[in-house]
Every structure is written in C-alpha cells, then in structure tokens.
Amino acid sequence: TAPNPHSYTTLRDEAVKLFNSLQQLELERDPVPLMQGVLQTCLDLPPLVDEIYCQLVKQTTEPPAPGGQGDLHYWQLLTCMSCTFLPSPPVLHFLHFHLDRRTESRFPTSEMAKYACFIREALGKTKGRECVPSLEEILVLMRRQEMICTVHCPGAPACSVAISSHTTAEEVARELVSRLGLSQSPNLFALYEQSRRREQPVGNATLLADVLTRFE
C-alpha cells in the first residue's frame, strides 16, 4: 500500500488515477496544475515514476495527430518528468530509444524532436528533486526555456540570473561573485533564503528550482 500522509490508496489504484489524469491532459486547456499533480504523486510514490514514463512513451508513440496540442501536452509533461526524476536503467534505455529512433530520426524538424532533444539533455543532468517543479517552472519547461531568478546582494543592486532545473546554489553564487568583481576576495560567499519567519543559508548543492518551489 501507499504511504498514508497524502491519503493515497494502493499503488495500483494510484496508477489507474494517474492514467486517467493523462487521458484528461490531452484535452486540458490549462494543463499546468494537472501536470504538477502528476509530478507530486510521483514524488510521493516513487514506484510510480517508471509507470508514468512508460505511459508517456506509449502516448507519444504513433499519436493520432503528431505535433497537435494533445500530443504536445504529453511531450511537455515528459519534459517536466525528465527534469525531476530519473527512471530505472531499463526504462531509461527504452526512453532513449524512443527519443532517438522514434522521434528525432523520424520527425527531425518537428516540435516533438525539439522536446526529445531537450529531454535527452535533461536526463543527463537530473539527479532527483526535493520538490516538484513550481507552476512557474512548469510553464518555462513547456517552452524549453530557463527561469529568471532574482538575487538581492548586500550593498549592490539585485541581480537577475538565468537558471535551469539543474542549477545549484554554488553555481549561482560563483556567477554573482564574478559579476560583482569579487573573484579575488578572500571572503567566502553563499546564498541565503529569507522568509518572514526565518533566514537560512542555501546549501551549495541545493537546486535553486527547489528553493523557488518552496516559496511558491
């Protein structure tokens, strides 16, 4: 059975619910909340990650309308999955075959091929997330773009930094140190997250996208 905190039932029942959500996704005008719900269930119930990957591969194989809105919704969710979870090695191998042979080779100039290329690159960087993508991040991933993160620096104007789903706090801190001309400084620099109730340092390996999701 599935864990209790989120009132899940059995894994089989949850897999059926996710399959129904995927069917609904094809016709959804605003797919973002539904996508985030699927991602959250996969985060809470890791055994379902492979199941969703396999279902999405099935949905994007020989679709009735290749490149149509419904088909692209599946590719967009597959993009979000690839930036959040790594499938098991056998599923990963099959997924790469799907991306390379079934999609990029057959439809080289299509939107599907562009998503396939993005997904393949993301899978090479994804190590697992603490949080599912925020609504803003999902919208950005649907367009295969980067997010803009605003960092407030003491004694300097706020800096805008482009980040991906894989950008760490250490990478952003290093970029800001370079921008501010502090590369030769003997001091150590770190990012902090601040809310109304607390302020705490962000670990070097922490993904900035997870921090932004917590603020959402």
Automatic annotation (TrEMBL):
Source organism: Bucco capensis
Protein's gene: Plekhh3
Superkingdom of source: Eukaryota
GO annotation terms (biological process): signal transduction
SMART domains registered for this protein in UniProt: MyTH4 (SM00139)
Domain MyTH4: 1-142
Organismal lineage: Eukaryota, Metazoa, Chordata, Craniata, Vertebrata
Protein name as it appears in the record: PKHH3 protein
Domain Ras-associating: 145-216
PANTHER family: AGAP003327-PA, PLECKSTRIN HOMOLOGY DOMAIN-CONTAINING FAMILY H MEMBER 3
Domain FERM: 147-216
Recorded GO CC terms: cytoskeleton
Cross-referenced InterPro entries: Actin_motor_Myosin, FERM_domain, MyTH4_dom, MyTH4_dom_sf, RA_dom
Record Gene3D superfamilies: MyTH4 domain, Phosphatidylinositol 3-kinase Catalytic Subunit, Chain A, domain 1
